[in-house]
Design a protein that fits this description.
Helix content: 10-25%
Largest sheet: 8 strands, antiparallel, barrel
Number of strands: 10
Structural class: mainly beta
Shape: elongated
Strand content: over 45%
Order of helices and strands: HHEEEEEEEEEE
Number of helices: 2
Strand order of the largest sheet: 1-4-5-6-7-8-9-10
Radius of gyration: 19 Å
Length: about 210
């Protein structure tokens, strides 16, 4: 898990550096098009609650993951966010002797509410929907099929500019309320929903 986090962090820093360099190299009309937009890269810890239903209990493992986002502010207080997130963890079902390890891909779309800057800090809140794709791993997936689940997404956080208003640190909490996966297997079906909490820290670039 630590190796995955380091790999994501290294890739994120390289991507951020390339984006900064390309932004300064763009002509003025491209920068004007992206005005009031932001790109962000974050690392998060995922903590998912246990669930119980139909005589089956599911205990998820904690994990680390990463998310890339694009935001656009079209009104002083309103905007939207689109994002992709990835993590990998194991769900342990009481009806199976071994846990199911899966790669989880999140495709998010949310409305964004931004507050006025306070001492240079800008709080925000978001709410929207996500599509979660559970893709069982090759060796630890117990040969079950991939499955997509909807999720209600919400969160709060703040941007902290560093030296300039165009770059800074983002700290946030995101919650995803979603159905417990069953991969289409009757012996894994709980009929329940669960909450995944994702405290995150990362960087953003404001255009």
């Amino acid at each position: 898990m630590l190796a995955m986090y380091r790999s994501f962090l290294k890739s994120s820093l390289i991507l951020a550096a390339l984006l900064v360099a390309s932004w300064f190299a763009q002509p003025a009309n491209a920068q004007s098009y992206l005005k009031n937009s932001e790109i962000g890269l974050s690392a998060f810890g995922q903590i998912t609650g246990s669930s119980n239903g139909d005589g089956i209990s599911v205990k998820p493992g904690d994990s680390l993951g990463g998310q890339a986002t694009f935001r656009h502010i079209y009104h002083p207080w309103l905007g939207y966010e689109a994002g992709y997130g990835y993590t990998r963890f194991t769900d342990r079902y009481s009806s199976l002797p071994f846990g199911i390890q899966h790669n989880t891909h999140e495709f998010e779309g949310s409305y964004l509410l931004t507050a006025p800057h306070l001492l240079g800090i800008q709080p925000f809140g978001l709410a929207g929907i996500s599509a979660l794709l559970y893709s069982p791993s090759l060796n630890g997936g117990q040969n079950v099929s991939a499955q997509a689940r909807p999720a209600f997404t919400f969160g709060v956080g703040a941007n902290f500019p560093l030296l300039t208003s165009h770059f800074g640190v983002r700290v946030q909490y995101r919650g995803l309320y979603h159905q417990t996966p069953d991969y289409g297997e009757a012996n894994l079906k709980t009929g329940t929903w669960r909450l995944s909490s994702e405290p995150a820290v990362g960087v953003y670039l404001h255009f």
